Amino acid sequence: MKNKYIKYFLLIFASMAFFSCSSSDDYVEENIPGNEQSEDDKPITLTVLGQPLPDYLQCEMYIFQKNSTAQDSEYTLKATQTINPNGDNKLEIKNIDLIEKTYRFLFIATSKNLEEVSLTKKDGTALALGLKWSDIMINSNEKLVSANNYQGFVDKTSEEILSTKNINATLTRIVGKLKFDIYKVVKQDDKYVSTGVATPHFNVLDRVYKIEIEYMNLTQGVVYDQNNKLKHQAIWGESHKQEITPILFQGENPWFRNFKIDESQKVDSLTYSKEKAGSAHIAGIYCMPSDKNMKVKLIFHYYDTTPICNDKREHYHASNCYPDINPICGKLPHMHSQSCYTGDELTCGKESHAHRKECYDVPAKCGLEEYIYTVGCFPEESIELNLPKENSATHDPLSIIPNHFTVNTAQIRYNRIIDVGTKTSFEFNTDWENDK
To answer: Which of 148, 173, 198 is the last residue of a domain?
Structure first.
């Protein structure tokens, strides 16, 4: 660097001597030193994210710079650039800006036309040039975010920039997602769902007509820690509530009416496994990362099985009320079951029918009064499940890992409704799969 300045000084001195010794007739403008662009001022053109962005994303690049010998925390924001979605992106850096410098290129991608996350200061205020890496925060603009939020950065030395002339970074999801898997098993500590669980106990959510999920201590903003891993920094003051309404079976058989889950109906955030008998899978929300900070409350609203209908006994006139009497309807009895369906399509080719009093032309011989319970005959109850268990010394609040599912698993006896109450806690594991 010292030799370079000496060179410039001698150049100026030589120019002065030239003018003092030349007449106006000898002056040629093209030979004036300094009109040519120096090598230090010539820009290096870099290719940025050569692949086009997916149609549903918009992306911003943040350019940080530091002295090559400085700590990562000394990276300072020098410029920003909006990424062209078609992949035709270039960045120019002058040679002089590469001397003994290292660059960090940070990419933040979010939903197109809906900026769910943005880069801000740690206090949530607007970003400014000159801000250090340790003072930035990825801020969620709403409590509820989607999967379409990504981040990624890459460090480049001046030598790497000159040799490769490209900036390629891998973008991964900022958010993680909560899932709740609830299975029916024959005995406690079964590792797999029993294949022998059959009707009438065919789903762990039988009689459950509403599920309320409350998410507390949701992360609002995340920062990069000393290992450049995302860690929560700011927390939303209010919780977020999610409501799921399972559809209860409305078949001809009164004993099933309003009690059993109708697995053939599609419900948002609720699915059932055909391979694992009795299981239900609840899809929670996408969340910003959290380190043992988040709490979840689930409330299951269900109908109790003990009727309160003036002590009346439920009874309907069926075929056993007409012994040795042929029905006049001319139909065969048949109740649709799971085996009658292929996927969501009814494929058994049979008509659902049960012989009732309308199928006979004589009075019933059972001697009983026909009475069928309605929904109002069954008390509405609820069970609350807290994650972690309230006042638990052994269970920490939940961690949300970016780009992962946090799967919470509970196993319930096959002949029970969700009755874990305060005795059982969920087990936790994290796996990432294609989220369809």
So the answer is: 173
Confirm whether 217 is domain-assigned: yes
Q: Are 44 and 166 in contact (CB under 8 A)?
A: no
Return the closest-CA partner of residue 97 out of 48, 156, 153. 156
Q: Give the whole-angstrom CA distance, residue 96 versus residue 106.
A: 22
Residue 50 shares a structural domain with residue 99: yes
pLDDT above 90 for 421? no
Reply yes or no on whether the pLDDT at 199 is more than 60: no
**Both tokens assigned to 146:** 């989607």
Write down the pTM of the prediction: 0.75
- Summarize pLDDT for 222-251 with one digit per residue, the tens: 999 999 999 999 999 999 999 999 988 765
The reply to whether 43 falls in a domain is yes
Last residue of a domain, one of 173, 197, 230: 173
| CA–CA distances in Å: residue 305 to residues 143, 302, 313, 379 | 38, 9, 13, 8
At 131, which CATH number? 2.60.40
Q: In this structure, is residue 7 part of a structural domain?
A: no
Count how many domains the chain has.
3
